[in-house]
Known about the structure:
The complex is a heterotrimer of chains A (479), B (112) and C (532). By secondary structure, chain B is mainly α.
Amino acid sequence: MADYEAVIGLETHIQLNTVSKIFCGCKTDSWQDPPNTNICPVCTGLPGALPALNQVVVEKAVLLAAAVHAEQIRPRSYFARKNYFYPDLPKGYQISQYDEPLARGGFFDLPLSGGQLRRVTIPKLHVEEDAGKTLHRGDRRLIDFNRCGVPLVEMVTGPDLRSADEVAQYLIRLRQLLRWLGISDADMERGQLRCDANVSIRLAGQDRLNLKTEIKNVNSITNVRDAVQAEIERQIREVEAGRPIETWTLDWDEERQALSKMRAKETESDYRYFREPDLLPIVLDSEWQARILQALPELPLERRRRFIEQYSLPDYDAEILTEERSLSEYFEQAVGSFSGEPKTVSNWLMNDVLRLIRERGTAAGALQLTPGHLARIIEMVSSRQITASTGKDLLEQVETSGRAPEDLVKEQDLAQLSDEASLRELARGVLQSNPQQVDLYRGGKTTLLGWFVGQLMRETGGQADPQRARQVLQDLLDM
Amino acid sequence: MITREPGSEWVSPEVFEHLVQLAALELNPEEAEYLRREMNGQLTAIRELEAIQIPEGLPITSHGVPYTPEISQPLRPDRLQPSAHAEDILAQAPEVEERYIVVPDIPRTELE
Amino acid sequence: MNQALCDLPAHRIVAGVKRGDFSAAEVLESTLARIEAVEGRPPGLGGEPANGIGVQAFISLTPERARAQAQAVDRALSRGEDPGPLAGVPLAVKDIFCLAGTPSTAGSRILHNFVAPYSATPAARLEGAGAVTVGKTNLDEFTFGSSNESSAFQPSPRNPWDPKRVPGGSSGGSAAALAAGMAALSLGTDTAGSIRQPAAFCGVVGLKPTYGRVSRYGLIAFASSIDCPGPMARNVTDAALMLGCIAGPDAFDATSAQLPVPDYAAGLEGDLRGLRIGLSPDYARLKFPDPASGELREQPIAAEAQAAVEQAAQALAAAGAEIIQGVPMPNTQYGVPAYFVISRVEAASNLHRYDGVKYGYRFDGEVADLLELYRKSRGRGFGPQPKLRILMGMYVSGAQYEKRYYERALRVRTLIRQDFQRAFDPAGAHRVDCLLTATTPSPAFELGAVYGDSVLMQYADLLTVPADHAGVPAISLPAGLDRSGMPLGLQLQGPDFSEALLLRVGRSFELATAEESWRSVRPPILAGVSHG
């Protein structure tokens, strides 16, 4: 069998997390609201209604364009009407952008496993309004306009991805970036990030672009990956069997894990674009643009690289610490307050603190356990003032109470028991209570030492220094 | 490039039918003929535009009045302004079920 | 002379109501009585037989609403409060505007049952100023036409000066209602002359403001980049008063101009010394292609229309203005063809939303699928004029034709705009302050005479459409009656946002011709109706 290469481009629609819709004052987030409650004359296309552009939509879109290094963010861009009939499109046209979009010429360098980078080009980025939702009921369609007018950014990539896994990676990184910038919650299951994939194949080493199929309506990253993989395999099978690839539109059935050909387009695709006369051009003067770009943070992949270099962290740590923006900021602040190795902070963060964050369904930036508090706890453990297990308990306590860890240590008398005499006393008690184990140990089962240490730790309420405890027990047992 | 013989029509019955489909209209034969004739008449009038000498680089005018920064409306602030009209809007729909607007389904071609 | 309350100018109604000479309720009753006397039976979708010589100006009347509003005005006055600058004035709103709680039909079957959930901004401002809405006036379907004959609600309005003739269009019902005393003010719209032409045909005042001067929110859209809501009244002072209430920025209309609203009534009585008023030979004749051969034809406008212009020039000169002859406006002749293209593209798109799904008419027979529902609803809901505009719009905006037609037309529009800029340029050859022309090439034509011939119908707008393209303001003033007793209209066009100037010149003309005999002639339809 010949060697084939997959050629995949993605069209992503990103719902911005503004308070109000793009052209009216209805709210943007109406997930799970009863149908047709979040509507007004504008977003339902009533006779006489007119659009009025939400300023923050422009700001968020510009931020995204800058984050993908758009070569050109137009100082003047125009809305255009895309005319077609569909029941979820109340005006019979979508207000979008056509040949004068907000930004052009961007790219995203996607890290692949193995350390390479795949440069995914992003030729175009534009702003548009979302349509409503329809659902089937027998031979009828039910329409809900709640979602009409939600602001979207459409970002189209070049045919630069080469496998289903890369597609998944791209979506993961895109989602990370959108959350990092604070412009979208990017939850695919809630339709806040949508993706259509254009898939074609060619013989490895070739340059040409063959006819592609379009996969639509896939609602999770895993499903996108599975659908793209299934389509690549299907195309290879077809080509091997000598059948041509036709430009179908495909649907992915998650349950059956299978592709199906969608119904043909409802109306012709001559959209008869023309400039939207009800809106003025978007004028992005240099002052406004500069103000917007002040909010452009260090991007996740840049920060990841910097953490590796600056803090001598392994890849693994840097990846986890920069997965979410407030966590990465938390890390740096904690390191700033801690006199020891950043790696130590990283270990604490990646394990216990991250677990705490997940259990409480919160984010690092919202913790009562501040970076300063964490640094203090780590210091107390490192200097053996408290045991590691005390330290871990303190994380919970500080988060719940909001109080400083050193205060809690003082109040609850949590300082480590390292007084030799009391320790010996308690250790003798442990040996006396467990004569069988003592015999076993002295009979050669020296691995029981660990068990003894555990017992002694329990006796001390976890406050003994485990190393000293071990030492003391060993002494006593070996006597 | 559209070429047309002198005296022939701009809009043939085939082109006309295609436009009617695109426009989601349905016409009876008399209407269709009247409209097609009127269209051809208007297009003859429009032909005048082609003869006009338009200077190179003449910009388009999208609204007669130029929108200078002074008269242009600032963009809308991102604030909630829920509408009081949701119920009245829904009340205008010809068929509603459980608050959804109901329509017949869209033609499908099921395959595979 | 004792005038019926309903025949009073709006500004005198306001003054009288506020002074306590009469109540808002009395003014309303006078108006309702006039409607009862001359309006005829309400029109219908199936077409009702005309009630003899009824004016048929309205699609729907709103007496309950009006009574409640009049009561509110009178109550406010009795409490010593100010009910607003239009207190008690009977108002007719062209049925192209959404008015909350009223059927807002656009003169079409496809919206015959649409009850607007909200009010258009200009209408809301008028009601907020104390005006009393007596009804929604008839219009060409979706404003597509210049005679009001294309309305789905028949019989269509008659011209109060001769019921065999059209009142003009598309604001025909509005103009007719004013001329017959069935309202003192009317809110109309102008896209190719739809305020000015019916005003001229019916002998009333109609002003198309600068594009963007008045909010379009709630105006059922035809051509978004051209439509202008505007005041219609029986005299200039009333038009100024009304403009002051409706003009001004609106957060709901992104194209509304962010300019303060001057006090239009304040500068009306100024004289015209130092003003330069231009006349243009390009407005004295019509140039249009023969519909059959495509050859360019030229013919002068009606002699009496031209004479009215010349007489008006003399009157204005006597009032102190300088008349400048020969101002070239060479691209005037392209106004209609460019309009055919631009307006149709926008209209076709604006009419996409009428699909039977969310509001309005939905075909209630058996359909196989949604596509058939669209076709049948639109097919039966729209009359021939909307269908024509939709098909034209689809044709000229199709991908393969876009550059040839639409973009080109937008460039021609620039040429038309430049005609005005050159004429008004203070450093230019003519540097006029405004242009004086006839409003229409001829007075009102007979019902059925032109309808059906869309090209000829559109060319009636030749003198008015350039201002729509250029966005500049223009006013039509009554200028006398022709030999057969039909009104003639005079048009003044000015630079952007020069409404105050146009109103001032209009007022001067009114004063200069105040004693002329035609000013005391009433429309014949009022012959049997009492004055007092």
